[in-house]
Design brief:
The chain is of the alpha+beta class. The chain folds into two domains: 29-119, Phosphorylase Kinase, domain 1, CATH 3.30.200.20; 121-269, ATP-grasp fold, B domain (D-amino Acid Aminotransferase, Chain A, domain 1). It contains seven helices and 15 strands. Strands 8, 9, 12, 13, 14 and 15 form a six-stranded antiparallel β-sheet that branches. Strands 1-2-3-7-6 form a five-stranded antiparallel β-sheet. Helix 1 (77-91) packs parallel to helix 7 (312-330) and helix 3 (183-190) packs across helix 4 (192-214).
Length: 336
């Protein structure tokens, strides 16, 4: 079995450090891997051996931008991501199962960790878009389509799409860029039945998220979701994938994994200020991206150098945006 992030390389580029702060040592658990944001541990059995059926998924306060893990953490970010994901898992439970086993975790990581089922992960970044912005806007401006999906003419930054679309990408190692994929390329990688199911579930999750979020004054522009597999694995590429294209998608049960509909995996916009034609105000880490590319940071995105430390006001405002998103969506007061 693989970990929930097979795309994360255990040997990232030295310019793209995945862990500016050390992962906590947890008695009864073996540290397996640290990604951009999360640390993975295996529970130990009675003989002190790592279990192969479960993982402890710990969300740190690290934040990434432009394929770099920044040196400055955002306080309470890991707790917000974990608690918001748990809330969304409940809202989406009728669509598909999720990987959560228990939220009872060691005290040292209470609130920001969850015990999950260990799954074989789908080797595709499943992205759904309901509005046009970011990399999708750049591609549309050049080709009139996104990941091979043609879109109507005349759309601008922030325009709503006629319906949510599936715009997958590759899963690149830490420090490298994910590359857009067409639906045909996903079919070649995992087989046609599974590719259709990934597209259906991704867009359905985004549509359900928007149904709920709009009632709370938030627009979900786009999102990335992760799927694990029970009862089988994705077909290998090439001839094997072609042979698998006639298999029933019921041979593999898809499970929602990692995080879901959080400010790290999604673009959240305040509905009251949304106006197509320009970049939108957001609840997510776009504020950090904007500061990094502003003259105030003194950083050149094209330099390949590690971004500078975030100033206190950027850290405080980013934390406030994450907390506001959590409280607005869930109706609950955030408990640090």
């Amino acid at each position: 079995m693989t970990t929930p992030h097979p795309s994360n390389s255990p040997s990232p580029s030295p310019n793209h450090s995945p862990s500016p702060s050390p992962s906590p040592s947890l008695p009864g658990y073996q540290h397996l891997y640290s990604g951009k944001v999360r640390d993975l541990y295996a529970p130990l059995d009675a003989q002190g051996r790592p279990r192969e059926d479960q993982l402890l998924l710990v969300a740190s306060d690290r934040i990434s931008a432009y394929d770099f893990v920044l040196d400055t953490p955002i306080p309470d970010k890991g707790t917000v991501l974990t608690q918001l994901s748990l809330w969304w898992f409940e809202q989406l439970a009728d669509i598909l199962p999720n990987h959560v086993v228990s939220a009872e975790v060691p005290e040292a990581v209470a609130g920001r960790a969850v015990l999950v089922e260990r799954l074989e992960m789908v080797p595709v970044e499943c992205i759904g878009r309901a509005y046009l912005t970011g990399g999708g806007l750049e591609e549309y401006s050049s080709t009139g389509s996104v990941c091979g999906v043609p879109l109507p003419p005349g759309l601008t930054d922030g325009s709503p799409l006629p319906a949510p679309i599936f715009t997958p990408t590759t899963k690149a190692p830490v420090g490298e860029h994910d590359q857009p994929m067409t639906h045909a390329e996903v079919e070649q990688l995992v087989g046609a039945p599974l590719a259709r199911r990934l597209a259906e579930l991704t867009t359905r999750i985004l549509a359900r998220g928007n149904e709920i979020a709009r009632d709370r004054g938030i627009i979900l522009a786009d999102t990335k979701v992760e799927f694990g597999m029970r009862g089988g694995s994705a077909a290998p590429s090439g001839a094997a994938a072609s042979e698998a294209s006639t298999a029933s998608p019921d041979d593999v049960e898809l499970v929602l994994a990692d995080e879901v509909l959080t400010p790290d995996s999604s673009r959240f916009w305040p509905a009251a200020s949304w106006e197509p034609g320009h970049p939108q105000e957001s609840y997510d880490k776009q504020y950090v991206r904007d500061w990094l590319t502003s003259p105030a940071s003194g950083w050149d995105r094209r330099s390949g150098e590690q971004p500078p430390a975030l100033p206190d006001e950027v850290v405080e405002r980013t934390r406030a945006k994450y907390v506001e998103a959590y409280e607005t969506l869930t109706g609950r007061r955030f408990q640090a």
